[in-house]
Amino acid sequence: MTTDRAPHTSRADGAVRPGGAVPAALAATGAVTRTACLWVPDWPVVAALVVAGLGPETPAAVTGGPGGRIVAVSAPARSTGVRRGMRRREAQGRCPDLQLWPADDARDAREFEPVAVAAETVVSGLEIARPGLLLLPSGGAARYHGSEHDLARELTEQVAVRTGHECQVGVADGFLAAVLAARDDAVVPPGASRDYLALRPAAVLVHARPGDRTLTELVDLWRRLGVRTLADLAALPDAAVAARFGDLGVWAQRLARGQDVRPPARRRLEEDLTVTEELDPPAGRVDVATFAARRLAERLHDDLGRRGLACGRLRITARAVDPVTGEARTLERLWRTDDTLGGLSAARITDRVRWQLEGWLTASSLGKSTAPAPIAGLTLAAEEVAPAGALQPRLWGPGAGEDLRARRAVERVQALLGGDAVLTVRLQGGRDPRDRVQLVPYGEQVPPEREPDRPWPGALPPPAPSVVLPEPAPAQVLDAAGRPVVVDVRLAVSGDPARVVVPGDGVEGAGGDDAGGAQDGAGDGAVGGAWSGLDAAVVDWAGPWPVAERWWTPRGKRRVFLQVVVDAAGTPELGLLLSSSAGEWRLEALYD
Hints:
Blueprint: H1 24-29, E1 34-39, H2 43-52, E2 60-64, E3 69-73, H3 75-78, H4 88-94, E4 99-102, H5 105-119, E5 127-130, E6 133-137, H6 138-145, H7 148-163, E7 168-173, H8 175-184, H9 193-198, H10 213-225, H11 230-235, H12 238-256, E8 273-283, H13 286-307, E9 309-310, E10 313-321, E11 328-336, H14 346-360, H15 363-366, E12 375-383, E13 386-387, H16 402-417, E14 423-427, E15 437-441, E16 467-478, E17 499-501, E18 509-511, E19 523-524, H17 525-528, E20 535-549, E21 557-567, E22 574-581, E23 584-591
Parallel strand pairs: 2-4
Antiparallel strand pairs: 1-6, 1-7, 2-3, 5-6, 8-12, 9-13, 10-11, 10-12, 14-15, 16-17, 16-18, 16-23, 17-20, 18-19, 20-21, 21-22, 22-23
């Protein structure tokens, strides 16, 4: 039996691939695979608690989707009445101590990797369907461990011992039955999956594809048509389901019958590849060190090609020797290299190493001597190694080549100007929009200066501004009598803001990102014209919000923020973010 195991063409959630790409043998015979499913309940909340360093006894929830509703809830929060689908305020009203975090797929996937590694100590291969849920064919593993019950017990024990997380394991025929069996912590006997599913409501299909609004709408349509259970769906004629409900209906009916669209695609563990070379004598010039780096890059590329592998990250490590003291120092930088097309060639590896060496072979990078510290050893390590060709090009969208061509153009600019000459914007932790912006060299995986997932008391509430000024502009906030508005230490406002005046021509604004007010390096004169020399009436306002940062130090800052909506003659209403420090107002950002 031949199956397509490309991750984005054979979906891990069991969905029918575009174009009716169901393996012919499965479609013809209705074959099923004995599948084990490992499920960690409430995984988005568990991952958020791990990142925050909090224990499982903390009442917590994760918000996401339209309106920022609750999408995942911890057991302590559920015991107080918090439920999925609630609004934030209702949830906080039921549980005042509730910790809230926004949904973060990257965080969930990153923190789930230790669980997958723990499971692979029991079974040699598995498939991660989504963070919190993994699948594996149970036949051989169950025979090795004695029985399917023994396999389930061994998986839960290893995950608990190695990660500290509690999980549930279910075994059944077919994907949906295995997922529901994991939720019940049960082993369904062979051949009994259809009966196990029959009396369940059709709405349980959402556990196979959480968050799929199309599937939710289809289930609601079936309910109104009288198809309320999986047995009702399984009994419908195949041709009628395909004609009326399309591929999604065919997929749902197959799962309702306890069948598979495809068997689990097992991931193959590959060891990281490392190449090392000692430089004797140590190289104090970039061109000499780059010559050695080119040889290493070719060796690493050949090793990857010979084994049919690709890497997601490239770790560059250099051993520098101080020419005065003889002290050795290890310099290390991690670059993300995952490309949908084209892979990572030896020349591109060399470019990255050269850019890094240019930064290291300077006195400023070491800060200990006036002369560059020569490089005595170089090591290149390919990490996140996986079989090459696992991702298939798409017909349109990011995977069709546009992103790759853009990245290559940026890399050519970096090759000409240096690695630090091209910067990209990333969100980080902070209390105001400007603090949340971090500029990092393009392609480098630099840790954020401030973790965005940490709580930031006093942070401005959403939505974030769409335009953040590169430098705050002086402003005046006046009340109805023309007196300056003053905010005292108790956050009392001397008068309602009535006018905002921005003297002079102002400065040009910088485009931002709605998710976090991230700055765009280019000014926008057209946007700047909306508030340059502004003198407008205030039609609405909110605040003030106090922010005190490092108040115990001489350089500490005490500020209050004010949001206002102004109506200037001849222009549409404009939202402004203003800050006041030591009695002086400044314009910080603009809202759409």
